[in-house]
Structures
1.
Amino acid sequence: MTTEGAIILIWSATLLLALLATVMAVVMIVRIVQAARETDRLLKGALPAAGGIATNTAAIRELDAVVAAAGPLLEGSATIRRAANDIHGKVGRVGRLLSGRGAS
C-alpha cells in the first residue's frame, strides 16, 4: 500500500466515523425534541388541573377560623341541649300534674 492509499484509507475511515457520530447525534437530538414536545403536551394538560386544585384547596386557609368558631358553637349547642332537656322535664311534670298522675 502506498502512502497515498494509506492516507485515503485513514481519511475514509475518519469520514465514516464522523458520519456515524453525526447520525447518532441527529438521532439523539430528534429524541430530545420528541421528549420536549411530549413534556409540553403533558404540561398543557396538567395546567387546568393545577388551577382547579388551587381553587379547590383555597378554602383550607379558612379552616383555622372554623376551628376557632367551633368551640363556642359546641358550648352553645350543649347549653341549648341542657335547656331543652330541662324544658322537656318540666313539661312532662306539668302534663302528669294535669292528668292527675302526680308529680313523681
2.
Amino acid sequence: MVARLLSEGERAQLQRDGFLEVRSGSVKGRRYRISRRGGAPVAVLEPDGRVLYLCLQPATPVAEQEVVLLHKLMLEGAEDDYWRRANRVGRIMGRGMGRHLL
C-alpha cells in the first residue's frame, strides 16, 4: 500500500532520511516530520525555529509503514482535527504513548 500512495520522491526520502516531511496546509512554513518508526511522535517544525512533538496512535495495531501513511493523510486532509486529537509531548517518547489516531 505504501508504494501506491507515496511518490517516488517520498519513498526515497523515507528510506534516506528516516522520515517523511509533510508541509502544513494551514500554517505557512510549518513542516511535519513523520518518522518511519510507527510509534514515534511527529515532529512539528515551526516557521520560527521551534520544534514541537505530537503523539497520536492508531486504536488498533497497524503495520509501521501504514502508520506513516495514516499520519500523512490525516495531516494533509484534516490537519486541525489532527491537532485536536494529538497529545503535545516535550520530547520523543516510546512506542504506544499518546492518543488514538482513529
3.
Amino acid sequence: MLHKCANPACLSPFRKLSQGKLFLVETPALERSESTPAARRGLSSHRIEYYWLCDQCAFALTLSYEKGRGVVTVPRLEIVRKAPTAVAHAREERRDEGGRTEQSA
C-alpha cells in the first residue's frame, strides 16, 4: 500500500491516483533459488512494486532501480537541461529556518 511520496525528503501523503505520478517497478526477488515453485515452473522470480511521486516531486524527479540500493529518486534530465535555474530555485525553496537545505536521495 502506498502511503506517501517516494521522495524521502517529501512528506506528501498519497491520496489520489490523479495527483502525481505512479510507477510500477519490477525488482529482483530477495532470494533467487531454483528450488522455488515459481522457478521450477519457469515463472519470473521478480516482484512488482508500486511507487508514487507527488506532483511537485514528479516535476523534477523520476525513480530508478539501482542494484544494491533499490529504488532511488534521480533528477529528470530533460528538466535539468531545459531549466537549470528552475531546479536551483526549487532547492532554494526547500530551505528551512536554520538555512539548511534538504537533499533528496
4.
Amino acid sequence: MAEKDLKWYGIFVVLFGTILSFADPITDILTLVEFYRADHKTWFGVGLAFLMLPCLFFPMLYYFSKETELTETSRARRYAQVFLFGFNPFSPAFAKLQTFIFYMKNFKKIWRGHSIKPVSPGTASDEEAYALLTHSNLALMFESILESAPQFIVQLYAMSVQQESVKIIQMVSLPVSFLSLAWASVYSR
C-alpha cells in the first residue's frame, strides 16, 4: 500500500471502483442466464464455476481481515457473518462499498487536509482506514484473478465460437470484465 494520505478526490476513485465491483458480477450473472436460455449448458456450467470459485476464498479473506472485529462476537454470530458477507460473488463490492462509506464519513476531515494515513496505524481512524483499504484491495485482487480473468476468457471464447448472433449482455459483460481486470491491476496498491 502506498504511503500517502487519503485525498479528497479518492472518493470518486472509490465510487467508480464500487460501481465496477457491482457491475462485473451482475453482468456475468446475466450472461449466464443468456447461456442457459440459449441451451449452452457447457458455457453456463463453466461460467457458473468461475463465478462461484472466488466464493470459496472470500470467506477466508473476510475472516482474516476482520479478525479483530469478529473476536468480540459469539462464535455462531462470527460464522454467520463470515458466511453471509464472505460467501457471495458480491463480497468485493461490499468491501468497496464499506470503503466508500468510510470516505463519506471522513470527507470533511480529508477535504480540510487532516491527515488520515492508512499505512501507519496509530489512531482508531487510521487503523480503520488501514483495515478497510487492505481488505478492499485484497478482495479486488482475488476477484480479478479468480473471477474476472476467467470470465473474460470464457466469454471471449464463447463469443468467437457460438453459431448464433452475440447477445447485447455479452457485449456489455466482456468490456466490464476487462475493465475490472484493468482496474485491479492499476488501482490495487
